[in-house]
Write a structure and sequence with these properties.
By secondary structure, the protein is an alpha/beta fold. The chain is built from 17 helices and 11 strands. The structure holds magnesium ion.
């Protein structure tokens, strides 16, 4: 027992925001594989059955769930397992506690959407290492986040596969010798479909991503290419490149995760299997590399690698993101908020897939751009954009629950 305590105390503490989601579950698998992290705090939404299993397995000191009802469900689940419950907190306050836990060296930010924004900012201010999967955080408030990271010394390691690839490609390169970043996009399930077919796509078709198994929100974003647009904005803030130095190329096989072009014309790419555990492990162990838990890429099994120009006529959301970047300030936050509402409305069967782009564009065009240098202006842009999107949907108020 004493030996175990000594070993445990030498392990790095880790907190996960969004532990029951796809990235959260994969992170816990990587932690089991690496055997050098101790889970000190976990935050989840409403899936209390899975959350209880994780708490039993990883014994965090404190946890947070969405609200008091969830906390009660969680206690019931834990009582059934005869496990002494950890300290349970709720809501954004609870997520902030998870994100700033004194013993957390690394914080994995993997909640979906804007809800992870404030807790991630607090973790950055506290100087934690951030393994960032929640791209919305940088889309909404890239300037604020990167400024806070410079001040506290917090390191932000991207978990998003494209940005993780770019991080690997940029290692050791002189910034002045890099001409542009090239993000790859799978093209989603409707890459070869006509405008009409995309207009009338069903929810099941949109959720059927050809290469990646992910949560619902990001899968719909991949189907509209909004995900790639958000990733362009994310890349600007992570790596400090301007929009005209960030390109997107459609690569249906998702084997090349992204590339950089050097001034001499040389291209450096990162390739790998389509499994997020690689990017998660890289972010957790950087600057070291440890033996991975995945089979390496089998070149002989690859049929071909192909590349295409993205079609912004059929996928206007990608273009909206470039326009939001050009406008700057609070505009990306407004676009992101509108998108969260419109994607949820599509998943609820209220609108067509193509309406997502229409609503996002209308909200963005109606948004009055302000400077995005403080929390209040960003939060107010977010709320106003959600309200505009909801009024375009015909006043459904259920989506307001998603507010920051
Ligand atoms: Mg990605």
């Amino acid at each position: 027992m004493l030996l175990y305590s000594i070993v445990a105390s030498r392990m790095k503490g880790i907190s996960i925001l969004g532990s029951t989601g796809s990235i959260g579950c994969n992170t816990l698998k990587v932690i089991e594989h690496l055997n050098e992290f101790r889970v000190v705090a976990l935050g989840a939404g409403r899936n209390m059955e899975k959350f209880a299993e994780q708490i039993v397995r990883f014994a965090p000191e404190m946890v947070s769930c969405e609200d008091d009802d969830c906390a009660e469900m969680l206690l019931n689940e834990l009582n059934r397992s005869n496990v002494r419950p950890p300290r349970i907190e709720t809501g954004e306050k609870g997520l902030v506690e998870v994100a700033t836990h004194a013993e957390a060296h690394t914080v994995v930010s993997a909640t979906v959407g804007a809800i992870g924004f404030v807790p991630t900012l607090r973790a950055i201010e506290a100087g934690k290492r951030i393994a960032l999967a929640n791209k919305e955080t940088l889309v909404i408030a890239g300037e604020l986040m990167t400024k806070a990271a410079r001040k506290s010394g917090a390191e932000i390691l991207p978990v998003d596969s494209e940005h993780n690839a770019l991080h690997q490609c940029l290692r050791g390169e002189r910034r002045s010798e890099v001409k542009r970043l090239i993000l790859t996009a799978s093209g989603g399930p409707f890459r070869t479909n006509s405008r009409e077919e995309i207009e009338n796509a069903t929810i099941a078709e949109a959720l059927n991503h050809p290469n990646w198994k992910m949560g619902d929100k990001i899968t719909i974003d991949s189907a509209t290419l909004m995900n790639k647009g958000l990733e362009v904005i994310e890349a600007k803030w992570l790596f400090g490149f301007e929009a005209d130095q960030i390109s997107v190329v459609v690569h249906p096989q998702s084997v090349v995760h992204s590339m950089i072009e050097m001034v001499d014309g040389s291209i450096i790419a990162q390739l790998g299997v389509t499994d997020m555990k690689h990017a998660i492990q890289y972010a957790l162990t950087y600057p070291e590399r440890k033996t991975g838990c995945l089979e390496p890429l089998d070149f002989m099994a690859l049929n071909q690698l192909t590349f295409e120009e993205p079609d912004i006529e059929r996928f206007p959301c990608l273009d909206l993101a470039y326009k939001a970047l050009a406008k700057g300030g609070t505009t990306p936050a407004a676009l992101n908020a509108a998108n969260e509402i419109s994607v949820q409305a599509f998943l609820d069967g209220k609108i067509k897939l193509s309406d997502i782009g229409r609503i996002n564009e209308a909200v963005m065009n109606g948004h009055k751009t302000e400077q995005a240098s403080d929390l209040e202006s960003i939060l107010s842009a977010d709320i106003n954009a959600r309200e505009s999107a909801i009024s375009l949907l015909g006043g459904s108020s259920a989506c307001l629950a998603q507010q920051v």
